[in-house]
Structures are given as structure tokens and as C-alpha cells.
């Protein structure tokens, strides 16, 4: 976060950053540090942590090492609702995008769990994964269709759809942070139950765990974490895939440690990606979602080939 505050297109130093908070003088450098880079660092940390924790929960629920908010349609649902709000209702403010993205994420999660729960067998990891993939494809197709019909909407929303923390105001994070905090707290409270659930559905039921309730509460945590993150920064991918595997490798599979450690690593990765995004084509910037994709795609292929986490 300190590196994110100091380095960027505007030339600043460590001493400038220090004095921006201790002896603010209204200079351009101090304004950039306080009003642009600090909110950006805080948002990247909050979003990275939330997406990583949501990914860890989804991988446990689905028993799929490739599960994450972007793969299971949560990001796609948020993007679709944002495009609908812009194309059909004319909303174009960051606050309106945030609200619609949060609603879209919640709808996607609800549909995923409702569809996967249908049938005599009830919810199973395979059905949950297939339902999420189908919802992701559906919302992505709807979004592309709307953007084809409304080119003006495409111009306005394209940068948001790529995922970015650039230009986000601290007020936007302040409006979403209660949801992220609630989701993170709920996830930590469910950590012991997730340990039991990870041993298998039958084992969990045999130990007296109310698996349906735990899955419902876990879904709520994912809505709060992933939905709030997408609302602030757009649909940033691959954080939820990469980080849980790194955390398991370094800290183990105990969710009491896995979830907070995933949050820490997720914050670090997204901040680092955002710093890199400033320098790739300077003076212009690459959306941070592009940077996470560059990092995440090779890792995604590696997981798919090796089957990490499936044994």
C-alpha cells in the first residue's frame, strides 16, 4: 500500500507522501497522494482481500479448484445489471453502477444456488459448478447483446467491465465497506463449519452439521464479498482462483487460517497488479483486470492440467 501511494505517473517521493499526511500544503503532489492514490490503495486492498476470501469459500462449497466469482457467473451478473442500468435507464454515475453491480451479483448467486438445489439429489458440487458456468455464459451473452445494440453504452461501460480501481472515490468504498466487513466476518465465523464441510457432505451430516444452512450462509458471505467488490472495482478476474491455492500451499487447509491468509495475499496481489498497470503503457494505464488476467491465465491453465486441490 505504501508503494501504491508513492509511485505512479505523478512524480512523488517518500518524503512527499509523509508530508502529505502530516503537513498538507495543497500542492498537486499532495492532492494526488491524498485524493487519488490513497483511495486507490485502500480500494485495491479491500477488493483483493474480498475476492480471495470469496474464491476460497466457493472452492470449498463446489469442491472445484477452478471455482471463483468470475468463473461461476457472479462478475457476469454484476456486469449485465450495470449495462442494463446504463442502456435502459440511463444511469451513468459511479454510485448507480455500484448499486446495480451489487444487485446483479446477488441475483447471480441466488440463481446459481437455486438451480443447483433443484432435483431429488439437492445441491451437489457438480451441479453447483455447472449452474455457475451456465449463469456466467447467460449473463455474458446478454451483456454482449445489449452492448451491440447500444454503442454509446459500450463506450461508457467498457473500462468498468475490464475491472479497474482507477478514479474510484473513497466515498464509494465507504458505502460498500460495511457489506465487505459483514461478509468477511461471516466467513470467519463459518470457518470451523467449512472445515467439516470440506471433508464431504455425508461426513458433515454424520457429524450433525446442518449442511443446507451452512451453504446458505456461505452463499450470503460470497454475495457480500464478491458483490461488494464488483460494485466498487468492476469484474476483476482470477484473484479468487489464484490466491486460495497459494494460501493452501503455504498455510494449509484449515479455514480458520486459510480465509484470513487468503485475504492478505489477495490484497497484496491486487495492489501489486495495480502498481504494474500504471507502468505498462505509461502515461496511459492498463485496467487492473487486464493485469490480473495476464497473471491468472497461466496459473489457471496450470491448475487445470495438474488438478491442484482435487485430491
How would you sum up this structure in a few lines?
The protein is mainly alpha-helical and about 300 residues long. It has helices at about 1-5, 15-20, 30-60, 75-85, 95-115, 125-150, 150-160, 170-190, 190-195, 200-205, 210-235, 240-250, 255-280, 290-305.
Give me some keywords for this one.
ABC transporter involved in vitamin B12 uptake, BtuC, 14 helices, transmembrane helix, mainly alpha, transport, cell membrane, 311 residues
Topology readout:
Layout: H1 2-6, H2 14-22, H3 28-62, H4 74-87, H5 94-117, H6 125-149, H7 151-162, H8 170-189, H9 191-197, H10 201-206, H11 211-233, H12 239-251, H13 255-279, H14 288-306
Helix pairs in contact: 2-3, 3-8, 3-11, 3-12, 3-13, 4-5, 4-6, 4-7, 4-11, 5-6, 5-11, 8-11, 12-13, 13-14
Could you explain how this protein is built, in words?
This protein has 311 residues and is mainly alpha-helical. It has a single domain (2-306), classed as Orthogonal Bundle (ABC transporter involved in vitamin B12 uptake, BtuC). It contains 14 helices and no strands. It has helices spanning 2-6, 14-22, 28-62, 74-87, 94-117, 125-149, 151-162, 170-189, 191-197, 201-206, 211-233, 239-251, 255-279, 288-306. The model has no long low-confidence stretch (mean pLDDT 86).
Number of helices: 14
Percent of sequence in beta strands: under 5%
Uncertain stretches of 5 or more adjacent residues = none
How many domains? The number is: 1
The 3D shape can be described as globular
What is the CATH topology assignment?
ABC transporter involved in vitamin B12 uptake, BtuC
H/E series: HHHHHHHHHHHHHH
Q: Which structural class matches the secondary elements?
A: mainly alpha
Instruction: Look at the structure and give the CATH class.
Output: Mainly Alpha
What is the total tally of β strands?
0
* Biggest beta-sheet profile: none
What's the rounded overall pLDDT mean?
Answer: 86
CATH superfamily: ABC transporter involved in vitamin B12 uptake, BtuC
CATH architecture: Orthogonal Bundle
Q: How large is the radius of gyration? A: 20 Å
Percent helix range:
over 70%
Distance between the termini: 36 Å
Amino acid at each position: 500500500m505504501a508503494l501504491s501511494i508513492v509511485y505512479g505517473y505523478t512524480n512523488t517521493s517518500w518524503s512527499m507522501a509523509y508530508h502529505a499526511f502530516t503537513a498538507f500544503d495543497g500542492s498537486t503532489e499532495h492532492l494526488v497522494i491524498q485524493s487519488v492514490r490513497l483511495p486507490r490503495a485502500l480500494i485495491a486492498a479491500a477488493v483483493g482481500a474480498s475476492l480471495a476470501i470469496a474464491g476460497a469459500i466457493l472452492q470449498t462449497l463446489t469442491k472445484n479448484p477452478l471455482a471463483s466469482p468470475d468463473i461461476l457467473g457472479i462478475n457476469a451478473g454484476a456486469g449485465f445489471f450495470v449495462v442494463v442500468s446504463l442502456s435502459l435507464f440511463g444511469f451513468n454515475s459511479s454510485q448507480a453502477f455500484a448499486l446495480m453491480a451489487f444487485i446483479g451479483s446477488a441475483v447471480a448467486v441466488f440463481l446459481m444456488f437455486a438451480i443447483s438445489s433443484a432435483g431429488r439429489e439437492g445441491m451437489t458440487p457438480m451441479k453447483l459448478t455447472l449452474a455457475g458456468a451456465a449463469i456466467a455464459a447467460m449473463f455474458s451473452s446478454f451483456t454482449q447483446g445489449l452492448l451491440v445494440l447500444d454503442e454509446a453504452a459500450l463506450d461508457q461501460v467498457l473500462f468498468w467491465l475490464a475491472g479497474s480501481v482507477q478514479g474510484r472515490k473513497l466515498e464509494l468504498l465507504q458505502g460498500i465497506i460495511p457489506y465487505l466487513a459483514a461478509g468477511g466476518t461471516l466467513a470467519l465465523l463459518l470457518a470451523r463449519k467449512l472445515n467439516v464441510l470440506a471433508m464431504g457432505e455425508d461426513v458433515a451430516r454424520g457429524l450433525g452439521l446442518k449442511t443446507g444452512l451452512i451453504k446458505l450462509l456461505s452463499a450470503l458471505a460470497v454475495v457480500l464479498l464478491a458483490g461488494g467488490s464488483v460494485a466498487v472495482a468492476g469484474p476483476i478476474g482470477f484473484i479468487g482462483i489464484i490466491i486460495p491455492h497459494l494460501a493452501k500451499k503455504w498455510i494449509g487447509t484449515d479455514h480458520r487460517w486459510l480465509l484470513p491468509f487468503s485475504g492478505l495475499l489477495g490484497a497484496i496481489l491486487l495492489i501489486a497488479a495495480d502498481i504494474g498497470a500504471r507502468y505498462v503503457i505509461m502515461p496511459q494505464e492498463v485496467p487492473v483486470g487486464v493485469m490480473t488476467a495476464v497473471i491468472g491465465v497461466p496459473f489457471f491453465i496450470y491448475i487445470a492440467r495438474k488438478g491442484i486441490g482435487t485430491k
